[in-house]
Design a protein that fits this description.
The complex is a heterodimer of chains A (about 300) and B (about 160). Chain A is built from twelve helices and 14 strands. Chain A is α+β, with helices and mostly antiparallel strands. Chain A folds into two domains: about 5-170, Uridine Diphospho-n-acetylenolpyruvylglucosamine Reductase, domain 3, CATH 3.30.465.10; about 180-290, Enolase-like, domain 1 (2-Layer Sandwich). In chain A, helix 10 packs antiparallel against helix 11 (about 240-255). The termini of chain A are far apart. Chain B has helices at about 25-35, 90-95, 105-120, 125-130, 145-160, and strands at about 5-10, 15-20, 50-55, 60, 75. A five-stranded mixed beta sheet of chain B has the order 2-1-5-3-4, with helices on both faces. Chain B folds into two domains: about 5-75, Ubiquitin-like (UB roll), CATH 3.10.20; about 90-160, DNA polymerase, domain 1 (Orthogonal Bundle), CATH 1.10.150.120. In chain B, strand 1 (about 5-10) and strand 2 (about 15-20) form a beta hairpin. Chain B is globular, with a radius of gyration of 16 Å. The longest helix of chain B is centred in the C-terminal third of the chain and has 17 residues, at about 145-160. Classes of the chains: A alpha+beta (about 300), B alpha+beta (about 160).
């Protein structure tokens, strides 16, 4: 690939200065598992690569006093799913982190990078949405916060303007009686890109039999990851049952506007939305009731 | 040719220095500059795992790490897994179990499998297949590789 300059600033200010100076000539380097491939294949360009991994805030995993978590933009996936406290608080996020690429990718790739790459099929984004994440962005104009569901604007595009970078993702404190799950459909068992993905989070009401609040987000069925708002609203106050979840899945299908491509036809993706939303809600329910929060290793493979 | 950057790193326990361009991958430097040719270039885009090395104990695709990012890191390649007298049990089991044909995926599998067994001494078959899914093989169909990892796990248990 074309050669570029490489800089590894030690502070956010230094990084922002470099990015603002060089504008569209500069790209941020976190885990590198998307950007290096893209630079090599000419899909993105850089005359300057700004490695943010020497900036403490980008690599930090810090629990706040309010009980929430700040995940630095460059924290690798493996750090998240090897942390029992993170798994316990935000299981849909660790579900996602465990299935982005494979082990070697997870050694480097970050949720922040997955978000900034802004693929409509990104596995981390539905989880970040349902867990209520907020993006902390730094730029020449100062800092701003953007709810994660507003971050992506089109395939490969997001709200970051020239000179801006993602610093971290702020997760709210995980509440009682809540659970979450992310799952996707892929033709293989692993190492694939979502044909459709669904993230679900719910909180049970007193008595543990009704859905007090639900959040649903979908990947790969629209130009960006999306929220299934109508289904979320419908679920409020409904009994936490298979029937409700099936109905919610049907409603969620209306939120999807997928394309047909080599990974699957649009109508199949829409069908999958209903199936995956129902299953993800089931998974979230199980965890809300005390079930296993560890990332689920997808099965469906033929054993020796 | 671009400006060269000086990098100091540790590889297989030895302190090492090299010069590289920013665009050069760690894989390129390991193979061409450091002449550790165990790691292979299979795809150059992070899919096949033939370039797997350990970076600070974590398996990574060295084709997706810039050589400059190795500054200050501790790297381990397949060349380090045998000790002076013996092959690693994984290497023994791969040979005994015919878990390779052309062998190009083998160094990557050995590094990943070693990291797996070091962290997780008795993985289930499902876990082996899932954790090694970042390593692709075009020759064997994976069965013999999985059985070799299982056999190595048994053998490593006995040794303790």
């Amino acid at each position: 690939m074309r050669d570029f300059e490489y800089k590894a600033p030690a502070t956010i200010d230094e990084a922002v200065t470099l990015l603002a100076e060089r504008g569209s000539e500069a790209r941020v380097l976190a885990g590198g598992t998307d950007i290096i491939v893209q630079l090599r294949e000419g899909l993105r360009k850089a005359d300057l690569v700004v490695d943010v991994k020497k900036i403490p805030e980008l690599m930090s995993l810090a629990w706040r006093d309010d009980g929430g978590l700040d995940i630095g933009g460059a924290v690798p996936c493996h750090v998240l799913y090897n942390d029992a406290k993170v798994i316990n608080a935000y299981p849909s996020i660790t579900d996602s982190a465990k299935i982005i690429g494979g082990w070697q990718i997870q050694g480097r790739a970050s949720l922040g990078g997955n978000l900034c790459n802004s693929s409509p099929a990104a596995d981390s984004i539905p989880s970040l949405i349902v867990e209520g994440a907020t993006c902390r962005i730094a730029g020449p104009g100062g800092e701003r916060l953007v709810p994660v569901q507003e971050f992506c604007t089109a395939p490969g595009a997001n709200v970051l303007t020239e000179g801006e970078m993602l610093v971290s993702l702020a997760l709210p404190p995980a509440g009682e009686s809540s659970g979450s799950r992310y799952m996707r459909f892929i033709p293989r068992n692993e190492m694939d890109i979502a044909v459709t993905g669904a993230g679900a989070w719910l909180r049970l009401g007193e008595g543990g039999e009704t859905v007090e609040e639900a959040r649903l987000a979908l990947s790969a069925v629209a130009p960006t990851p999306i929220v299934a708002g109508e289904a979320e609203a419908w679920l409020q106050g409904k009994p936490a049952t298979e029937e409700s979840f099936t109905e919610a899945g049907d409603i969620a299908r209306k939120a999807a506007s997928p394309i047909s491509d080599m990974r699957g036809p649009a109508d199949y993706r829409t069908h999958l939305v209903g199936v995956l939303v129902k299953r993800a809600l089931n998974g979230a329910l199980g965890r809300a009731r005390g079930g296993d929060r560890n990332p689920v290793i997808p099965s469906g493979i033929n054993l020796c | 040719m671009g400006k060269k950057i000086h990098v100091s790193t540790t590889i297989n326990g030895e302190a090492v220095e090299f010069l590289c361009e920013a665009r050069q991958s760690l894989l390129e430097i390991i193979r061409d500059t450091l002449t550790l040719t165990g790691a292979k270039e299979g795809c150059n885009n992070g899919n096949c795992g033939a370039c797997t090395v350990l970076m600070n104990g974590v398996p990574v695709d060295s084709c997706l790490v810039l050589a400059v990012e190795a500054e200050g890191a501790e790297l381990e390649t397949v060349e380090s897994i045998a000790n002076e007298e013996h092959l690693h049990p994984l290497q023994e089991c791969f040979l005994e179990g015919a878990a390779l044909q052309c062998g190009i995926c083998t160094p990557g599998f050995l590094v990943s499998a070693k990291a797996l067994l070091d962290g997780h001494p008795e993985p289930t078959e499902e876990e082996i297949r899932f954790e090694l899914s970042g390593n692709l093989c075009r020759c064997t169909g994976y069965d013999k590789i999985v059985r070799a990892v299982q056999a190595a796990s048994e053998r490593m248990k006995e040794v303790k």
